[in-house]
Amino acid sequence: MKTLFASTSRGLEELLKQELENIGAVNCKVTQGGVYYDADPSTMYQSLLWSRLASRILLPIAEFDIYSDLDLYSCVMNIKWSDIFAVDNSFMINFVGVNDFIRNSQYGALKIKDAIVDHFMRQTNERPNVAKQHPDVRLHAYLNKNRVSLSLDLSGESLHQRGYRQQTGQAPLKENLAAAIIRRSGWQTDEPLIDPMCGSGTLLIEAAMMASNIPPGLLRKQWGFFAWQGFNPTLWNELLFAAKHNVKKATTPFIGYDNSPAVLERAKQNAIQAGVGDLITFAVQDVTQLTNPFEHQIHGMIISNPPYGERLESEPALVALHSALGHQIKQQFAGWRLSLFSGAPQLLDCLQMRADKQFKAKNGPLDCVQKNYTIADRQVDKSVTSPNLPAADFANRLRKNCQRFAKWASQEQLECYRLYDADLPEYNVAIDRYKDKIVIQEYAAPKNIDPQKTRQRLFDIINATMSVLELTADQLVLKTREKQKGKQQYQKLGQKQDYFLVHEYPINQHKTQFWVNVVDYLDTGLFLDHRLARKMIAQMSAGKDFLNLFAYTGSATVYAGLGGAKSTTTVDMSRTYLEWADRNLKQNGLTGKKHRLIQADCLLYLSQADEQFDLIFIDPPTFSNSKRMNYTFDVQRDHLKLMDDLKRLLRPNGVIVFSNNKRGFKMDSDGMQKLGLIFQDITDKTLSLDFKRNKQIHCCFIVKHQA
């Protein structure tokens, strides 16, 4: 009888204990990350061959206290290694733990390696080889404070590597975790089993192997105990022969769906390699079109590991997918049972189903949950508009706003407008429409707010928005907006180059057109809250020389040009945005030498320019820290200096339209008077209907020379 340790993923220890007891292990004791148990030689080999849940099975060799690195060397040196493996076997050390004198795991492994090599040199005058890849012998050392536990790995490669999975999808489940999911689902081997998002087929293959009584270790060609001096090949071969003889032909239907033919082909090859290729039917099927292939089957099981992402851009699609999955399952599989494993519990809430049971587990470093559901024996789907669902008040507000603003936008001939701007404090987002695209900008939550709660609300918002506006996943774009400095608001987020044209107010019977990109940048290329200021510029620009500073993508220049400006000058430091401005100008027929584009630091340009203009539009950043020009700019602190430079460029009867987005900005009246400038606050006149709620979205002033 030997004492062994079987390791497993965190959260699966009790399940592993039950499995080992069923195999024949005794005195099982659960500890964090695994189970200690006693086994005779036959049970030891059976646990290696049959455990579907263990990651490794270790044979403890020695345990001792150390008080220096020399102690570690001496204690290991005194072990009779020739009784454990031969000198012609290669070995490696896996060392975990540190203390005051073993400062890193590499050093600990090195001391053990030196001790083992020196032991063999003294005993045999031969030196064993150390192999980092595919060693004959794996040794595990665990250091906890001053206590060292040393074990022989009887498994070799991790037990989750069954040997059938040659190719996988993007985020494969480990086989032992897949087996645990099957066990926890409550699936019975005579029940039909469907995985609607099967990927590389691991869940179905593990279930089919269970139904066929195929040991998970049957395909393995190499074991850690092969090089162990205590290995009994006769007993092992007897057990292996018996296992092969007891494999049976399962009759349970297994079906795997995925929307990728290439992924399904890999799943088929994995199933064939596992010996269950003839048991599983794989077919291309989008989960949004999922149907029940067993018309007269009353009972069955659906098990899946739906995708979950950590990037914001993936979340609208994932919410849509889970919502569609919940809808189809409730419509098609009444009376069945469902078990889903996910790293994003909030996404499972989008199913709008109540779980009977749930279990926690780790998938690598990720905290995950498995939820089991009984699908009600009815076929009625309740959508997000139900008053009992999360975010019902948000959905109602968004619906009212949509009805109100859609009519107004149609009358104004606008394709882009704001639908919602943190109207309800607990749903702290802005929602903008750009033609048929909807952009949700999540305002970053304070650090004292629970991130899980914040993300749950975000999922509720996405779910409700998609339902109320009847969107597909590719129509919704999600961004997070934090307080930005300088041109951080222009930062690049992606490389999709997804530009499309939108229209604004017609000017002189010409509908203004702008290229926008709602995916690649934090801002889209068109500031919606400035549209009335742009329209005002068009009305003021006929026959004028127009200057646009901090021009971004040149939308104000387009209005000035269409309004009949004599010339336009567009200045910005960014080449990207000047090229974007050039496209906007050409799209509106504004070409030729009278429309200049200048790449320059706007503040430097202001201090050096020697020409004058009749109309100047300037919308500077609230704050800028220019590494290139080695200065900082604060619009509140520095606006008088800005106005002094602008005054020099402004013709006697000229006008400056000065806008900025600093909350609570105050114009320095005394300072402006000393500069010989007068100003008028026109903020209210530049706030359109969709921005009336947010008086702080921007401020805007008309500035002129004193008479």
UniProtKB/TrEMBL annotation:
One function term, GO molecular function aspect: RNA binding
InterPro entries for this protein: 23SrRNA_methyltr_KL (IPR017244), DNA_methylase_N6_adenine_CS (IPR002052), RlmKL-like_Mtase (IPR000241), RlmKL-like_Mtase_CS (IPR053943), RlmL_1st (IPR054170), SAM-dep_methyl-trfase (IPR019614), SAM-dependent_MTases_sf (IPR029063), THUMP_dom (IPR004114)
Entry's EC annotation: 2.1.1.173, 2.1.1.264
Pfam families linked to this entry: Methyltrans_SAM, RlmL_1st, THUMP, UPF0020
Major enzyme class: transferase
Location in or out of the cell: Cytoplasm
Sequence ranges assigned to domain THUMP in this UniProt record: 43-154
UniProt cross-references to SUPFAM superfamilies, sorted A to Z: S-adenosyl-L-methionine-dependent methyltransferases
GO cellular component assignments: cytoplasm
Primary site of residence: cytoplasm
UniProtKB keywords: Cytoplasm, Methyltransferase, RNA-binding, rRNA processing, S-adenosyl-L-methionine, Transferase
Catalysed transformations (reactions): guanosine(2445) in 23S rRNA + S-adenosyl-L-methionine = N(2)-methylguanosine(2445) in 23S rRNA + S-adenosyl-L-homocysteine + H(+); guanosine(2069) in 23S rRNA + S-adenosyl-L-methionine = N(2)-methylguanosine(2069) in 23S rRNA + S-adenosyl-L-homocysteine + H(+)
Similarity field: Belongs to the methyltransferase superfamily. RlmKL family.
Job description of the protein: Specifically methylates the guanine in position 2445 (m2G2445) and the guanine in position 2069 (m7G2069) of 23S rRNA.
PANTHER family in the cross-refs: RIBOSOMAL RNA LARGE SUBUNIT METHYLTRANSFERASE K/L, RIBOSOMAL RNA LARGE SUBUNIT METHYLTRANSFERASE K_L
Protein name (record): Ribosomal RNA large subunit methyltransferase K/L
